[in-house]
Specification:
The chain has 286 residues and is an alpha+beta fold. The protein is built from 6 helices and 12 strands. Helix 3 crosses helix 4. InterPro entries: Endo/exonu/phosph_ase_sf, Endo/exonuclease/phosphatase, GPI-anchor_lipid_remodeler.
């Protein structure tokens, strides 16, 4: 009996073929067009679970482990939103396990939204039970994309760094999902600060699990010279937003044309959007 149960568990926990993230490749992705403004979005999609009250954390918790027939419907709704943006940062995606019906949600959203480039970062591999991931979707071909594991007592947090434009003076987009622990956030943001220290045009976007005032005054980001959204940009919980946990922070060299928390209550987080223009004279570097 023990051996049979152990064998069944081993089959469930056996890693899916991919041990790292996946990528669409960029053969058919348009070149970056620096003369255009760029529409950015960050969204914690909670693996496609529709959460509309605190009680759903209990009553719908099983959806974090098992498939649900309405998950694809929720992903299709999200994809319809993503069609309006050029670069999208996704958090709490599944890379293809039992709970998602073995669908790589980053790839699915990219294809459903008609966005040609996608990159999935696998941060916590629980085999066929769950493939915890971040995602990048892009209409432009990046110069390069790197993934980084973020430090912390409990592993499983990561960042994706994408560079666009000029090799000598790139636009650098960092997409991440920070830990809940303040101590871990300090280590993780120290790591990020070192990554972006030498760049002039930086966008930091994702679920940062803290308010901008704290992030930019009491963490290693305090000397990064990043511009936040207004303090009133509350994104959590989606059904009654009271906390600003999701952010797009930018360098002063990037003009913010528009920014907003998008009223789109599908996940337990609301998406945050920003429209930025590159600095004057940047086009001439190409």
């Amino acid at each position: 009996m023990y051996r049979r149960i152990r064998k069944q568990l081993d089959q469930i926990l056996k890693p899916v073929n991919q041990v790292r993230g996946s990528c669409s490749g960029d053969d058919h992705v348009p070149d970056f067009e620096p003369h255009r403004h760029i529409r950015l979005l960050t969204f914690n999609i909670q693996v496609g679970i529709n959460t509309a009250s605190y009680r759903h954390y209990l009553t719908r918790s099983w959806q974090h482990l098992l498939p649900h027939r309405k998950r694809i419907e929720n992903l299709d709704r999200i994809a319809a939103l993503l069609r309006n943006y050029d670069v999208v940062a996704l958090q709490e995606c599944d890379g293809g396990s039992l709970r998602s019906g073995y669908i790589n949600q980053v790839q699915y959203l990219a294809e459903a939204a008609g966005i040609p480039y996608w990159y999935q970062q696998l941060n916590r591999n629980l085999g066929q039970l769950a493939q915890h991931s971040n995602g990048l979707l892009s209409r432009y071909r990046p110069l390069g994309v790197e993934e980084h594991k973020l430090p912390g007592l409990i592993p499983g947090r990561g960042a994706i760094v994408a560079r666009y434009g000029s090799e000598d003076d790139p636009l650098v987009l960092v997409m991440l999902h920070l830990s809940l622990s303040k101590a871990a956030q300090q280590k993780q943001l120290g790591f990020i600060r070192d990554l972006i220290a030498d760049y002039q045009h930086v966008v930091l976007m994702g679920d940062l699990n803290n308010h901008a005032e704290q992030l930019l005054s009491n963490t290693p980001l305090k000397h990064a010279n990043l511009v936040p959204l207004p303090d009133t940009a509350h994104s959590f919980p989606s059904w009654r937003p009271e906390r600003a946990l999701d952010h797009i922070l930018v360098s002063p060299s990037l003009e913010i044309r528009r920014s907003e928390v998008v009223s789109f209550p599908v996940s337990d987080h609301l998406p945050v959007a920003m429209d930025i223009a590159l600095p004057k004279g940047y086009v001439s570097t190409f």
